[in-house]
Amino acid sequence: MAGDREEPEVAAWRGLLVAHSQLVPAVEADLRAAGQVSLSWYDVLLELNAAPGRRLRMSELGQRAVLSRTRVSRVVDELAAVGLAERQPDQADGRSSFAVLTSAGKHALRRAWPVYREAIRRRLGTRLTAQQCRDLAALLEQAVAGTETGIAGKPGG
């Protein structure tokens, strides 16, 4: 720190961490209160839904999801146990497998979206203007642009 003032980068980093630590659990609680899938399940379902053929190699899913690769594997197992996703072996490479979105998974994603969207609106849209949200999104994209990992701890992410 320079004198009594916090360096701008440190203040920004602290603000990002505090916002994450408060907003993520709040959105998670909103989803849970509405009887929807958890935020980690939602993230994996969303990535699978956006993928061609609604399927991704587990390694690709691990790079795309906002979770650790180990956590992604556990979430896929949890989703498969309740029929929202499936694991399918990769016929071309016996060492890898695909995570595949099921129709029940797509339905769960559609059911959760309005709750998730409202939680985001309530947590950000009522506190920030639309322009501030656009600026925040642009600043965060700029902050991670050019990083090798994109998401901390995810090589090649």
What are the main properties of this structure?
mainly alpha, 6 helices, three-stranded antiparallel β-sheet, Arc Repressor Mutant, subunit A, 157 residues
CATH class of the domain at 36-144: Mainly Alpha
Strand content: 5-15%
Mean pLDDT: 90
Q: Label the CATH architecture of the domain at 36-144.
A: Orthogonal Bundle
Shape: globular
- The helical percent reads 55-70%
Q: Helical stretch count?
A: 6
Low-confidence stretches: 150-157
Structural class: mainly alpha
CATH superfamily of the domain at 36-144: Winged helix-like DNA-binding domain superfamily/Winged helix DNA-binding domain
Rg of Cα set: 18 Å
Strand order across the biggest sheet?
Answer: 1-3-2
- SSE order, as H and E? HHEHHEEHH
Determine the N-to-C terminus distance. Answer: 31 Å
Please outline the major beta sheet.
3 strands, antiparallel
Which fold name is given in CATH as the topology of the domain at 36-144?
A: Arc Repressor Mutant, subunit A
Number of strands: 3
Kindly describe this structure.
It is a single chain. The chain is mostly helical. Helix content is 61%, strand content 8%. The chain has helices at 8-33, 39-50, 58-64, 69-81, 103-125, 130-144, and strands at residues 55-57, 85-89, 97-101.
Q: Helices and strands in order, then pairings?
A:
Layout: H1 8-33, H2 39-50, E1 55-57, H3 58-64, H4 69-81, E2 85-89, E3 97-101, H5 103-125, H6 130-144
In short:
The protein contains six helices and three strands; from the N terminus they run ααβααββαα. It is mostly helical and 157 residues long. The chain has a three-stranded antiparallel sheet.
